[in-house]
Amino acid sequence: MKNSESLKKNQDFQKVYRNGTSKGNRYLVMYVLKNRYMKNRLGISVSKKVGNSVVRHRLTRLIRESYRLNEMKFDNSLDIVVVARPQAKDRSYQEIESALMHLAEKHHITGKNNDEKISDQDN
User: How confident is the model at residue 13 (pLDDT cuts 50, 70, 90)?
Assistant: First the structure.
């Protein structure tokens, strides 16, 4: 994550939960909040309800890698918290990546949507 950092502190997670907007799909829930930094900060939460530590860490790695490979598509200056739902447990990388990008589009934080907005304003 060259343009991003991790959210590590509980108070940062709580701030995003309280003040951010949330959208969800079958496998993930994403909370997004603007921050004052020039880079994104990604936090990942996987509850014990999802599975044992091996399962939770695998899901964490899948989500982090999905974000890393699509990082250039995201807007800057965002705090993003991704919460894995129990249904995400046995999913493939492609399904997790698809779910993550679907939520990013729902939040309108991908560059693709920004290009459309800019082109609409030019007309």
Answer: very high
